[in-house]
Amino acid sequence: DQVREIIEDRGFDAEVLSTDLQSPVASRITEQKGSVNDSGFVTTTVGVEGMTCGACTSAVEGGFKDVPGVKNFSISLLSERAVIEHDPALLTPEQIAEIIEDRGFGAEVLDTTKSMREAGSDEGDASQSDIATTTVAIEGMTCGACTAAVEGGFKGVEGVLKFNISLLAERAVITHNVSKISPEQIAETIEDRGFDAAVLSTQFESSDLGPLASTAQFRIYGNLDAAAAQALET
């Protein structure tokens, strides 16, 4: 709530979409099935056709409210993608596509990969200090095809654990294993797709914050552009 208030103090409307602390639904599942192993989670990317506005993305998102097995959900109108972190034992990629189709949109499962914790263990049990989140400023994007082109440059790239991009903010945020792909290599990959890229920051994960640390996702209203994004960052 305090993060939301800070954003609103900058002159924008903000709505908390998710916080990755364990939800009541996940707690009930834990009680019913015993301890939940986070390494069992996977991340599924779905291509969504037919979305034309924010109401469409909200309609898709609403289909996953309180669905058992869903840990994190994000959707992009511009790139026509939904990214869902979920427990495949409770919710399969095919069921995810069916939920989206039931909301009236076309859906195609593009990729399903192991989530960050499990991916990290498979990559030689990389220490937590090897995992970082890098923010890159990108110049030259003008449409959804541009964001898709940038995103396509990271498909199947070893060490990339999570990828998000915003056309309006002119930013890409990549969670990655620095022993596999460095921030500089990320910028080079974007430049190879025909866009200018500058690394703004790289933050390493730390266990010092303890189990109460979390990542929150917000929907921000107010015709955001690159200048507005910079104002929020400061």
UniProtKB/TrEMBL annotation:
It holds the Pfam family HMA. GO terms for molecular function: copper ion binding. The keyword ATP-binding does not apply. The keyword Metal-binding applies. It comes from the Eukaryota. InterPro entries: HMA_Cu_ion-bd, HMA_dom, HMA_dom_sf. Residues 42-108, 132-198 form the HMA domain. Keywords: Metal-binding. NCBIfam families: copper ion binding protein. This is HMA domain-containing protein.
